[in-house]
Amino acid sequence: MFLTDDPTAVSTLPTPGTPGTPGYFTDGNPGSGVPATILQADFMNMIMMELQNIILAASLTPSKTTFNQVLQALPAALASRPEMAKSLATNGYQKLPGGLIIQWGTGTASTSDFANTLPIAFPTAKLSLALADIDLNPLTTFVSVSAFTTTGFNLTVNTGANRNVFWIALGY
């Protein structure tokens, strides 16, 4: 999306006019005296700048010959938004639109409560936590959760040895 470079274009964005009544385009109807909608510079500048800002937010260089720049820019522009933050580390997280956060990782369980800290705190509330034993021991070993909070949880194992677990936590 390249800014217009017509010889009649001005070098700075004109101050938009006073807003009128919102409405929709029409082709008009000469027979009934309804005029066609005239595309005004304010409206065209607004569309042009909205599209250009998506491209610039993705650090792309505006081009006159690339006709999919907005499509290229949207994933990068959305990923840079704080509400879409992520960490793809072993203990990581993904924030989703609407506020839901998925977190995952590995942790340790011991015969006493062993603290495991979430990669980021849930800002409002925790929803659920699921565990799986990495070592795949038979049913004689089980891991329990205590003190699940917005910042972490404690794990305890019923045997004498420490256990390693995979975990997934949901919250918002």
Tell me what the structure shows:
This protein has 172 residues and is of the alpha+beta class. The protein has two domains: 1-80, no CATH class; 84-171, Immunoglobulin-like (Sandwich). Helices cover 16% and strands 27% of the residues. The protein contains two helices and eight strands, in the order ααββββββββ. The strands form two sheets. The chain has a five-stranded antiparallel sheet, with no helix packed on it. Strands 4-7-6 form a three-stranded antiparallel sheet, with no helix packed on it. α1 crosses α2 (69-79). It starts with 40 loop residues before the first helix and ends with a strand.
Topology:
Elements: H1 41-57, H2 69-79, E1 86-87, E2 92-95, E3 101-109, E4 114-117, E5 126-133, E6 143-146, E7 152-157, E8 163-171
Antiparallel strand pairs: 1-2, 2-3, 3-8, 4-7, 5-8, 6-7
Helix pairs in contact: 1-2
